[in-house]
Amino acid sequence: MKKQLKNMELFLKGSNFYKGIKITFAVLMPLVVLYFLGFTELAPPIIMGAFLNATGDIPGSLKRKVNAILISIGLTMLITTIILFLKPYTPLLFVAIGIITFVVSLLSIYGFRASLVSFSGLLSMVIAFAIAKDTASEIFTHVALMGIGGLWYLLVSFIFQKIAPNKDENQLLSDTLQLIGDYLKLRARLLTKKNKREELIQQAFVLQTQINEKHETLREVLFTGRKRSGRSHYDEKHLLIFISTVNIFELVEAKHLDYNEIDRLFLGKKRYLKAAKKLNKVMGNHLITLSELLIQKDKLTSKNALLKALTRANSAITQYVEDVKLPKAREGALVLRNLYDYQKLLLDEIRAIRRVMENVTDASKVSFKRQDGSQFLTLQEYRINVIFQNLSFKSTLFRHALRFTAAMIFGFTLGTILEIHNTYWILLSIIVIMRPNYGLTKERSKDRVIGTLIGAAVAFGIVLLTQNVIIYSVLAVISLTLAFALIQQNYKSGAALITLNIIFVYSIINPDAFQVIQYRIIDTVIGAAIAIIANYTLWPSWETNNLKDVLLNALKKNKNYLLATKELYHDKNENQLNYKIARKEVFLAISNLNAAFQRLTQDPKSKQKEFQLIYNLVTLNQTMVSAIASIGSFIMNHNTTPVSKEFDAMILKITNTLQMSCDLLEGLPIEKKTDPETIADAQEKLLKTYHDLSLSRDENIEKGLTKMSKKTLHHLQEAYLISNQLVWLISLSENLKKATGRYSKVFVESNR
């Protein structure tokens, strides 16, 4: 019960519920005011304008938000005008539906915010079918009032932003901390759950993608907002927390361990890993608690559990060495030590977040330059030629636009021929359900139908119990607020609440609510069926055939990240910014690859061609990022020795192999640029450095010098980590080249 109450508190204090209240206020206030002024007939178009243009109001910079809403207002007014004038002319109406659907759906090539503006435009087209205006004067008046409604919503959005300026940022940071906490706990399970690793790795892909999406939105909010007025105290706090979440994510990524090696070293000795596993869980749970406190604004909980878990992890290393004995214990002890050092760095970042949340004085200053921050933004290109570049069957969004247009025309034709009541509800279902890939369309169809059935069943029960208009009105307002609050979090619940709202609104106008329920269910099922069938049969976009560009980008960003890490090793101070930019870009590239793989898993089994090969490509790319991040993280957080020429030679070998993989995908001739003997010598010398340090350490132990200086420990760790990670990276790059070659033969060459 306590947990449910806490979840309720988090929901009511969160930005999603706040947005629900904002949209409900924007929709209801014109009705209330105009009712008391005696101009109730003016309310519907104003309400419609406010409702339609609320879609583009998502977290981000104020400038982009205002631009999106203004474009949405213009688009919805134009489309509504066209449909209202052409309604009496059926042939022209069909042409208009086709052109509007195709052109407006193509706007989504400009990114997520543009796709929401596109959705507003399509929604306005469908709703226009429910509007009865006969003369030009009536149409222009209606459209003008819609524009006023859109501007009214923009004003409401601005006022609500001023009332709670940090609501979205707090929610984004809270969601990010929770996701990272879940990710840390999942990585803890990966350490010992040998039989569940493949399943856990696929779950990790989803979390990585979600974390990167949150980071991208936070970059836009924190680095583009309030440029003219400067950063406030809250901005400073949020920026510090964000930087810590990025550091934590990199550290977690940097410890993508060679689990086969872990299994070999700790065969029959998994008990020594339990303390490290427990520490990860404690840190993950603590981050989740901090995420909740960001919303609740309560006092911080004690950090004692964190410190105790860290102490136990350190003690486990000592116990391992005492039980297994040196030198046999050295390799396992170094693995545990490197794991402990990484977890200690994680704990430092968590404590940094705590200091910010506690308003500690020395935690309120950010040395991060705004001009540096702008380099981390992913800029969206808005040139018109982007559309022309996508006018090809090679473009997934072009095929989606054609498919979507065909589905809409078919739905309208079917509704017209069969004289289905409220045909526009079929079109509405197609708009909200249909997505570029089959898997998501199928999932949304299922959620939409189930949500509609649940909403209809609840509404049916309430209508049976009472015919009170006041109760209907109250429930309509509550369901509207909750629907907007939940639609992004839980689409099924949102669909149920929207159905409730529509039925209660119709029940106020029309006493025959049962007829509304019946038609709502039928039209939703028809729309969902059309969306699924269209996605499966019309120019389908199966992910196995769409991975080339995403995979190529991941390989290129991996190569750039490796080169940036090499430069970081040479000069940490000079090359730190370039390293961080390369790190951000490769994380996004891998996130996109992970997302593509998730879409692949949602496709029908018969369309998941070469599934295991693609899974291997995704995991190899992911593992390569982690191996590079492991080197970069060590360099960033330790004083390192001078870079050897052997290190540079092996980096050159790995980058050349990655370039060969890129060439295979692009169909370019392959050229070997490194001498295998030279690489073998470099590898042997690097490993010799570690073995020499190990021998020296063994000799000291034999002389009774058991205590080791921190400097010697770091040198031993550096030699072990650098040599082993480079050897591993060479192996990974070779495996990537082989897998890419097989992928190229199966998919790329066959499509030429």
From TrEMBL:
Transmembrane segments: 20-37, 69-86, 92-109, 116-133, 139-160, 401-418, 448-464, 470-487, 494-511, 517-538, 613-636
Keyword Membrane: yes
Signal sequence, renumbered to the chain: none
Location of the Integral membrane protein YccS N-terminal domain: 70-331
Keyword rRNA-binding part of the UniProt annotation: no
UniProt name for this protein: Uncharacterized protein
GO cellular component: plasma membrane
InterPro entries tied to this protein: Memb_transporter_dom, YccS_N
Species of the source: Bizionia myxarmorum
Membrane topology: Multi-pass membrane protein
Subcellular localization, as worded in the UniProt entry: Cell membrane
Residues in Integral membrane bound transporter domain copies: 413-533
Keywords in alphabetical order: Cell membrane, Membrane, Transmembrane, Transmembrane helix
Entry similarity comment: Belongs to the YccS/YhfK family.
